[in-house]
């Protein structure tokens, strides 16, 4: 065992220092400082180098976590970066936004022993940020041209990952995305205080420099049908993600001032880029001076409440129908939000929205209680007949999650098979849809999920498409 490891008995868990809550709530910069090299080495040295590393097992990418922690502890940062980069196309992004408390760190063996998990995410971020600073991040190594092209619909993490790996294999890659900037939710859904936008844009620019062609502001079904794209390319990948907001069934939901989470976050992120955003400038999607109520308990809800604080809201409250222990969002994000002044109202479900002159003024909510756990262990919220209350509001943000859009209709592809949830149906072995040569990956297949799973799916579908395209090329050569 290397002498630099197993330091968890003498070195305590120590995350990078967070900026003061009052200061950080005044801007959209990331809230935590970067490790100094000596601190990163110290925290990496706490790893116990498990024979069966649960951190790796519970990472969707199966990153070689103990190995690059050891290399970091030994000061071999370039090797640590190369090993981290071997399994992930976006390690510094995962280091910032993965819910490590539910994945790698939550399953760290020394966490189980009471010593506090190794700060895996912060070390991962440190390694690759250092690699960018030192110039170790090399251009994409484009493979010898194969004479085949691939079209990818969606420039989110699944699409970008598949694009990079297929480019390495020598395919001509075109990405089609409805937005004017690539990145999907990395760009327009996640606020800068969690993921500063230059971190995303440098990844996109690296892919553009490799010759990957980005068709931005391109809507399939408007600018070209699915059939037309199939004719242009030897294979297609659908990696659109899921963007259809889940509805709240409550009276008054159509009042002005009751808005969708993604519309709200997109407007804020666009302002961060310096864009002109009419709905932000006229106050429709701007929390400044308003009493804000966010409905939901996931990571998107946490993004909304913390964004509202930074926009200068008069007050910010979050209503969630379950209790804190049963919320789906990161507990770290809840803690950050509380430090920044957000008030959480647990066991609360909206009953109706009331207003005056067509504009929302309050949320009438039911107190909730949790039923006994079902077979899955989940406790359903039910209305408590003895409770009810009203929360005043000038802006209500609905953050209840996302479902799939009607892609067969949207893309003009009636033969595209979908599940009863609207997600695209694929063969699990090949990741191909009901249309020959058309694949799908990411949230549009699995439903709303984590960025790290989208990257994993992008990696897997690239391998599946490579296999398909090699077989197709061999058949064409034989036929000729």
Description:
- The protein is built from 19 helices and 15 strands.
- With 480 residues, the protein is α/β, with parallel strands linked by helices.
- The chain has three domains: 7-134, Alpha-helical ferredoxin (Fumarate Reductase Iron-sulfur Protein, Chain B, domain 2); 149-243 and 403-479, FAD/NAD(P)-binding domain (3-Layer(bba) Sandwich); 247-400, FAD/NAD(P)-binding domain, CATH 3.50.50.60.
- α2 crosses α4 and α6 (91-97) runs antiparallel to α8.
- It is globular, with a radius of gyration of 23 Å.
Architecture of the largest domain, according to CATH?
A: 3-Layer(bba) Sandwich
> Which structural category fits the helices and strands?
alpha/beta
How far apart lie the N and C ends?
A: 58 Å
CATH topology of the largest domain: FAD/NAD(P)-binding domain
How much strand? 15-25%
**Tally of domains:** 3
Radius of gyration, in Å, reads 23 Å
Number of strands: 15
Mean pLDDT: 95
Q: Report the principal-axis shape.
A: globular
Helix amount: 25-40%
């Amino acid at each position: 065992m290397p002498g630099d490891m197993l330091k968890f008995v003498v070195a305590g868990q120590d995350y990078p220092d967070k900026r003061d809550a009052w200061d950080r709530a005044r801007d959209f910069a990331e809230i935590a400082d970067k490790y100094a090299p000596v601190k990163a080495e110290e925290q990496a040295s706490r790893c116990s180098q498990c024979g069966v590393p649960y951190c790796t097992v519970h990472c969707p990418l199966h990153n070689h976590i103990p190995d690059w922690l050891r290399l970091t502890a030994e000061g071999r940062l370039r090797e640590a970066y190369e090993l981290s980069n071997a399994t992930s196309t976006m390690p510094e992004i995962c280091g910032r936004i993965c819910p490590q408390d539910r994945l790698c760190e939550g399953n760290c063996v020394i966490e189980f022993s009471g010593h506090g998990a190794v700060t895996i995410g912060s070390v991962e971020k440190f390694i690759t940020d250092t690699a960018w600073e030192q110039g170790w991040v090399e251009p994409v190594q484009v493979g010898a041209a194969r004479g085949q092209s691939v079209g990818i619909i969606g420039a989110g993490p699944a699409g970008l990952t598949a694009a990079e790996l297929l480019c390495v294999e020598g395919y001509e890659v075109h990405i089609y995305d409805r937005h004017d900037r690539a990145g999907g939710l990395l760009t327009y859904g996640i606020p800068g205080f969690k993921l500063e936008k230059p971190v995303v844009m440098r990844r996109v620019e690296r892919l553009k420099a490799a010759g990957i062609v980005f068709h931005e502001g391109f809507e399939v079904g408007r600018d070209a049908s699915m059939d037309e794209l199939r004719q242009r390319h030897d294979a297609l990948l659908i990696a659109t993600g899921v963007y259809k907001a889940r509805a709240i069934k409550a009276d008054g939901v159509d009042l002005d001032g009751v808005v969708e989470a993604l519309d709200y976050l997109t407007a804020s992120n666009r302002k961060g880029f310096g864009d002109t955003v009419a709905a932000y400038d006229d106050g429709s999607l701007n929390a400044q001076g308003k009493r804000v109520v966010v409905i939901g308990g996931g990571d998107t809800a946490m993004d909304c409440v913390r964004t509202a604080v930074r926009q200068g809201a008069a007050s910010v409250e979050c209503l969630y129908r379950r209790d804190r222990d049963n919320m789906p969002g990161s507990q770290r994000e809840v803690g950050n939000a509380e430090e920044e002044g957000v008030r959480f109202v647990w066991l609360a479900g909206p009953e109706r929205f009331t207003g005056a002159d067509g504009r929302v003024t309050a949320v009438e909510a039911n107190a909730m209680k949790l039923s006994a756990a079902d077979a899955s262990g989940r406790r359903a919220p039910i209305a408590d007949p003895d409770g009810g209350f009203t929360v005043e509001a000038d802006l209500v943000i609905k953050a209840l999650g996302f479902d799939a859009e009607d892609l067969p209709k949207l893309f003009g592809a009636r033969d595209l098979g979908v599940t009863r949830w609207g997600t695209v149906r694929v063969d699990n072995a090949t990741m191909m849809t009901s249309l020959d040569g058309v694949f799908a990956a990411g949230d549009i297949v699995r439903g709303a999920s984590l960025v790290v799973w989208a990257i994993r799916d992008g990696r897997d579908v690239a391998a599946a498409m490579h296999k398909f395209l090699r077989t197709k090329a061999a058949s064409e050569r034989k036929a000729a």
